[in-house]
Amino acid sequence: MKFIEEFRDKNIAERLIYEISKISIPKIKIMEVCGTHTVSIFRYGIRNLLPEHIKLISGPGCPVCVTPNIDIDFAIALSRHKDVILATFGDMMKVPGSTSSLQKEKAEGRDIRIIYSPLEAMSIAKDNPKKIVIFFAIGFETTSPTIASTIIRAKRDGIENLFFLNSQKRIPPAICALIQSKDIMIDGFILPGHVSTIIGSDPYQFISNEFLLPAVITGFEPLDVLQGIWMLVKMIREERPAIEIQYKRAVRKEGNPLAIKKIKEVFKEDDATWRGLGLIPDSGYCFREEYKRFDARNIEIEVEPSKENNQCVCGKVLKGIITPLECSLFRKVCHPENPIGPCMVSIEGACHTYFKYY
Amino acid sequence: MKEDKILLAHGSGGKLSHELIQNFFLPFFKNPILEPLDDGAKITDIAEGLAFSTDSYVVNPIFFPGGDIGKLAVFGTVNDLSMVGAIPSFLSLSLIIEEGFPISDLKKIISSIHESAVQANVQIVTGDTKVVENGAADRIFINTSGIGWIRPGVNLSGINVKPGDKILLSGSLGDHEVAILSAREGFKFQEIIKSDCAPLNNLVDKILQRCPNIHCMRDPTRGGLATTLNEIANKSDVGIIIEEEKIPIRESVKGVCELLGLDPFYLANEGKLIAFCPPEEAEGVLEVMREDPLGKEGVIIGRVVEENKGRVILKTLIGGNRILDMLTGMQFPRIC
């Protein structure tokens, strides 16, 4: 199949692994930022094919995992209003907030619906004019253009009963915060492929220019990941930090200008709180004045005070400080049927991935 | 029938109920066991080894490419009986219908049940109909229970699998669930993906004639191949190794899985089986499988081993290894 089979060729994979092994470097740590890369790496068994001196660390690129309790609690509070229909991506259902989850609230009879696209939220709003429809907008730059486009369309169509609980995040500031935190010393980054189809490679230049670290924008097939690692390892060996694009069939240097324009029309950059990483400047969005009426945070509602589970160390896992295997709750108490933290809920969360594949 | 919608009165047991049964259902299911319309079906020739299975069908949407809820309701129970080595013979049919359900849709479903029963060579011998108020059910729910005599000399069970057994798969994975998902969510792809919904009893018959000593057979429905293999590994306390490159998956299904981030190992199938077979019999069984239209893509996908008890290991396309665990929760399409 075009663009799939060619990138799963066993012979080329073996060749790439050989080439990676040939490059002489000391022990290094590479962070794959994006959850889909974590899944790919496990799904194809890449970890145990790499030489021992290359360690792969999972990063915070899982939008479900980094949504803080304060936002989940707000969504839960909104869903409890009798006139509200809350629309959400499926993965968010099971994420535990401070005392409840959307799944539990649905079982209590709240109108919470799983949707696959933000446009569905608009359809629900049109079909239910007497209800307040709220879309729990999580995600990175990959999904922000479609969310922005939905809002633009809703404004154009004069839809008054549709709101967005904005918890979207931006990847480049999070990478900057990770590097600056010095909690973990990373030697190079595998950058998210789909985020980069939108933003291109320019927003990552600070990684090599300021911090002298290499990074490769990588696709998700096994050969993509292996080639991305090979390109990264070569840059480390040659002490030539740069931002390179492995995922050339989908990513251009300038990204997708139309998509970026849509985001900028509706949102401006703002500080945002990431679970585990804390407040990161300019790592999220807020509504521009013309679109403020769609902001669900304008809705007056009582929200319980947020509290984090003390035993949950998802924050450390998200930063790559520890692996899920080093969490005392992993497998014993925390598992997909009883997740304590979000990293176990999301299919791209590090803990869920380790649980499933390790 | 003069009504074009099901009314609550159709389920009351009174005149309209009798009219529905006599004029609408009975013409489809004429057989001597059903016709007396007693409270229960009397099957007087009872032999040993009678298998009995039941299942309920609540699929949404009720009509989908390759099938409908009626077809599923027949083949699902036929297949469950077949997987334990029984020859499916008699089914019960219970309907829970939402008030307002169009008679025209009910006719399509009942016709489909009739055709499916003929195809699977089973008889509907008893039934029940309930009508609930609008909103109390999602259009129509169906339950079928089935009985069949177990073939003498055949002992199929999840606890019988042994190290050394070869694992055969009759065909491509994921067709059914992708067809349902596409129909439900309105995904429109270049190629219409059809459910693989089919009766497996003839295929099972051929396999068991060739090799009565098959240890276990299963149809990997909800939870997919991965969940079924894990169930067997646990029940028989063995390890299982399968090879990803051997698993047949249609190009169109692969495409949808890639787009939505679904793992085909966890997708439901409704017309496929896996067989755990003594190693010396595997090639013979495969040959017989491939002679049947439902098994023409049959392949040996792996083997049972002594080590890693309770675990299923997948050798990946690029030569790595990963654990193939049971499905936990539901698969949701990827967000980004």
Topology:
The complex is a heterodimer of chains A (358) and B (336).
Chain A: H1 10-22, E1 28-34, H2 35-43, E2 54-61, H3 69-79, E3 84-88, H4 102-107, E4 112-114, H5 118-127, E5 132-139, H6 144-156, E6 162-168, H7 171-181, E7 188-191, H8 193-199, H9 205-209, E8 215-217, H10 222-237, E9 243-245, H11 257-266, E10 267-274, E11 278-287, H12 314-319, H13 350-357
Parallel strand pairs in A: 1-2, 1-7, 3-4, 3-5, 5-6, 7-8, 8-9
Antiparallel strand pairs in A: 10-11
Helix pairs in contact in A: 1-10, 2-13, 6-11
Chain B: H1 15-25, E1 50-57, E2 63-64, E3 67-68, H2 69-83, E4 86-98, H3 103-120, E5 123-132, E6 140-150, E7 166-169, H4 175-185, H5 201-210, E8 216-218, H6 224-236, E9 239-243, H7 251-260, E10 274-277, H8 282-291, E11 299-305, E12 312-315, E13 321-323
Parallel strand pairs in B: 4-5, 9-12
Antiparallel strand pairs in B: 1-6, 2-3, 4-6, 7-10, 7-11, 8-10, 9-11, 12-13
Helix pairs in contact in B: 2-3, 5-8
Give an account of the 3D structure:
The complex is a heterodimer of chains A (358) and B (336). Chain A is of the alpha/beta class and 358 residues long. Helices cover 35% and strands 18% of the residues of chain A. Chain A is built from 13 helices and eleven strands. In chain A, the strands form three sheets. Chain A has a five-stranded parallel sheet. Chain A has a four-stranded parallel sheet with strand order 4-3-5-6, sandwiched between helices. In chain A, α2 runs parallel beside α13 (350-357). The radius of gyration of chain A is 21 Å and the shape is globular. The two termini of chain A are 29 Å apart. The mean pLDDT of chain A is 92. Chain B has two domains: 8-150, PurM-like, N-terminal domain (60s Ribosomal Protein L30, Chain: A, 2-Layer Sandwich); 166-323, PurM-like C-terminal domain (Phosphoribosyl-aminoimidazole Synthetase, Chain A, domain 2, Alpha-Beta Complex), CATH 3.90.650. Chain B is built from eight helices and 13 strands. In chain B, the strands form three sheets. Chain B has a seven-stranded mixed sheet. Chain B starts with 14 loop residues before the first helix and ends in a 13-residue tail after the last strand. The A-B interface holds A 1, 4, 8-10, 13-14, 36, 42-49, 63-64, 89-91, 94, 114, 116, 138-140, 142-143, 194-195, 222-223, 226, 335-337, 347-348, 355-358 and B 185, 245, 251, 254-255, 258, 261, 263, 316-323, 325, 328-336.
